[in-house]
Specification:
By secondary structure, the chain is α/β, with parallel strands linked by helices. Helices cover 22% and strands 33% of the residues. The strands form 2 sheets. It has a 6-stranded mixed β-sheet with strand order 4-3-2-5-6-7, with helices on both faces. Strand 5, helix 3 and strand 6 form a beta-alpha-beta unit. Helix 1 packs across helix 2. It is globular, with a radius of gyration of 16 Å. It starts with a strand and ends with a strand. The model has no long low-confidence stretch (mean pLDDT 93). The protein binds inosinic acid and magnesium ion.
């Protein structure tokens, strides 16, 4: 089956929006430090770009949970593959994700992080597919709401491909 990628959001659109979210976070967290948690691997490109646009002090940590294999549908099975290096106790934490789809991954992750006693816990996602939601999740910062299509680029993959595209594209199967 042939596969091609159509541009949904250009590099400029994505970067402009990330800049605006960075400014918003800098205002919301004025006089505080923000501790960004990147959900690997998809959130990595977004977190780097976002962190550069935040003007209050930033620290970073990474975690990895499995939810998707080479398939385009959520399995509902979530497992911590890599946990955080540092404690989040009493920190102002923002979880940075590539996309909220069914909401299963984030709902699980946020509940788990809440139990570790952060001072505050927020969620920032580059993309949101609200039509696909199965589990409710509170999203504090959203880059773009997108239709129910499988997207790649800017960290998002299809079978580990296309993460390095500097824009968001839709995978089409001909
Ligand atoms: P959820 O648990 O269904 O919300 O799935 C969240 C995870 O599924 C994301 O962090 C992505 O890794 C992956 N995912 C969901 N939709 C897409 C997509 O359109 N393209 C690539 N990955 C996706
Ligand atoms: Mg992800």
């Amino acid at each position: 089956m042939a596969e091609r990628v159509e541009v949904l959001l250009t590099e400029k659109e994505v970067n402009d929006r990330i800049r605006a979210i960075g400014e918003q976070i800098s205002r919301d967290y004025a006089d505080r430090n923000v501790h960004l948690i990147c959900v690997l691997k998809g959130g990595s490109f977004f977190m780097c770009e976002l962190a550069k646009r935040i003007t209050v002090p930033v620290s970073l940590d990474f975690m990895s949970v499995s939810s998707y294999g080479a398939d385009t549908k959520s399995s509902g099975v979530i497992r911590i593959v890599k946990d955080l290096d540092e404690s989040i106790k009493e920190k102002d934490v923002i979880v940075v994700e590539d996309i909220v789809d069914s909401g299963r991954t984030l709902s699980y992750l946020l509940n788990m992080l809440k139990e570790r006693g952060p001072k505050s816990l927020a969620l920032c996602t580059l993309l949101d597919k609200p039509e696909r939601r199965v589990v409710d999740v509170d999203v504090n910062y959203t880059g773009f709401q997108i239709p129910d299509e499988f997207v790649v680029g800017y960290g998002l993959d299809y079978a580990q491909k296309y993460r390095n595209l500097p824009y968001i594209g839709v995978v089409k199967f001909d």
